[in-house]
């Protein structure tokens, strides 16, 4: 036990050492192990934990670098280290500036005077084998991305090191690297819209916890302070070993240890778990309390089902910035909701080229996605709640091809407070194309 306690202490010491490193410092596991007098395995685990904390980043062809921790609120922005990885680039100089944020980029396909009007501090100049442009961009506070696999002079590399501005070489052409950066920015915007557990844990007070040796009376005291009906139980190193709730405690006398009724090996989540995933997990498992842990199962915080659902509702009511669309949005964009003569919900749309296979017919996977979305949207319209797919049976009856106009007709077979069962029929020219029977589970009800 003492040996394990010492390794825990060393782990904390390693993390403190990494936190004190200068921003931009490169980190070698072997060197760190030698400096701190620990095994390379122990050093590696500490570096991975630091990466999880957001103070270290590891990039291919760059290595592990100490960075400034950024709040998740600006995670849609790219750093120059991100750019180097995206374009499969090699850093020629200015490595200490890799953690700086990309503000905008400019393509240097013009005369020098005109080019410099678009270059400013925090920007990135994408240019070919033009050393004069490389130098001038660095002097204006901009990083440089050299396309075509070209290098640059020793003087330019020294200037990049002096200014702390990366100069990166990529084998791809200008159009390709610009497309790669745009794609990455688009993906970041989508990720930013997806709320994580981290977003609701931030700013919350430390959770009330118990030890296995705590008494039932301790539970009542902590529960009264926090307002929680369930509490996490941790060991001496703050690792979650179980949870306990009021229902279990009622079996005990106040002077009895909670260990007798402890629910061991509870389901947990991490800071990077999406709120939707947390809600679905709690729904499927029939629980209303999640301890939030790090990679070593150390307790970071706790969330209740009510907190998760309220955060999701609040997010839906906020205005959406930017035109950010996932594949589900793109697939559904061509469909319009209507009411038939009997007041039932139907959807009309066309098969777009993006939905088709190489043979020109609609992809079966896309067809299933369309039916699932139709079912979930219908259940939400009728009940006001959010749903996830529980199971689906699908029948493909005849093919449809590009530009065919289809009708999607949902029929509610059964509904309750927690579930919806629907039949979804896709029709082309008054003939059925496919059918599915789906069962949905509400994430708003346990």
Automatic annotation (TrEMBL):
InterPro entries: CBS_dom (IPR000644), CBS_dom_sf (IPR046342), Diverse_CBS-Domain (IPR051257), DRTGG (IPR010766), HotDog_dom_sf (IPR029069), Ser_kin/Pase_Hpr-like_N_sf (IPR028979), Thioestr_dom (IPR006683), WH-like_DNA-bd_sf (IPR036388). SMART domains: CBS. Residues 262-318 form the CBS domain. The keyword Magnesium does not apply. Signal peptide: none annotated. SUPFAM superfamilies: CBS-domain pair (SSF54631), HprK N-terminal domain-like (SSF75138), Thioesterase/thiol ester dehydrase-isomerase (SSF54637), Winged helix' DNA-binding domain (SSF46785). It comes from the Bacteria. Keywords: CBS domain. This is CBS domain-containing protein.
């Amino acid at each position: 036990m003492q040996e394990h306690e010492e390794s825990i202490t060393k782990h904390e010491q390693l993390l403190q050492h990494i936190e004190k490193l200068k921003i931009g410092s490169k980190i070698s596991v072997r060197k760190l192990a030698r400096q701190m007098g620990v095994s390379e395995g122990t050093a590696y685990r500490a570096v991975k934990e630091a990466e999880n904390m957001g103070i270290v980043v590891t990039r291919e062809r760059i290595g592990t670098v100490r960075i400034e921790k950024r709040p998740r609120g600006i995670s849609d922005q790219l750093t120059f280290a991100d750019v180097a990885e995206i374009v499969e680039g090699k850093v020629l100089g200015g490595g200490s500036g890799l953690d700086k944020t990309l503000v905008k980029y400019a393509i240097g396909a013009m005369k020098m005077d005109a080019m410099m009007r678009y270059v400013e501090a925090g920007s990135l100049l994408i240019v070919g084998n033009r050393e004069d442009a490389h130098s001038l961009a660095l002097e204006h506070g901009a990083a440089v991305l050299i396309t075509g696999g070209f290098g640059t002079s020793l003087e330019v590399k020294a200037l990049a090191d002096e200014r702390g501005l990366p100069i990166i070489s990529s084998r791809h052409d200008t159009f390709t690297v610009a497309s790669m950066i745009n794609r990455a920015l688009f993906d970041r915007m989508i990720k930013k819209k997806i709320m994580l557990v981290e977003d609701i844990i931030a700013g919350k007070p430390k959770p009330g916890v118990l030890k296995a040796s705590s008494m039932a009376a301790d539970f009542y005291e902590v529960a009264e302070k926090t307002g929680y009906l369930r509490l996490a139980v941790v060991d001496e190193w703050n690792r979650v070993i179980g949870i306990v709730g009021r229902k279990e405690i009622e079996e005990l006398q106040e002077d009895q240890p909670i260990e007798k009724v402890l629910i061991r090996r509870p389901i947990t989540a991490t800071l990077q778990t999406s709120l939707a995933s947390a809600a679905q997990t709690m729904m499927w498992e029939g629980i209303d309390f999640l301890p939030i842990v790090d990679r070593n199962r150390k307790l970071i915080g706790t969330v209740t089902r009510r907190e998760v659902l309220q955060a999701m509702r609040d997010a839906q009511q906020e205005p959406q910035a930017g035109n950010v669309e996932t594949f589900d949005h793109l697939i559904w964009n061509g469909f319009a909701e209507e009411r038939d003569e009997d007041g039932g919900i139907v959807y009309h749309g066309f098969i777009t080229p993006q939905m088709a296979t190489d043979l020109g017919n609609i992809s079966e996977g896309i067809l299933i996605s369309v039916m699932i979305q139709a079912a979930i949207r219908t259940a939400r319209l009728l009940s006001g709640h959010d749903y996830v797919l529980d199971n689906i049976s699908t029948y493909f009856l005849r093919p449809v091809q590009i530009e065919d106009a289809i009708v999607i007709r949902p029929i509610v077979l059964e509904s309750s407070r927690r579930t919806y069962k629907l039949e979804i029929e896709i029709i082309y020219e008054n003939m059925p194309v496919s059918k599915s029977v789906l069962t949905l589970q509400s994430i708003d009800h346990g």
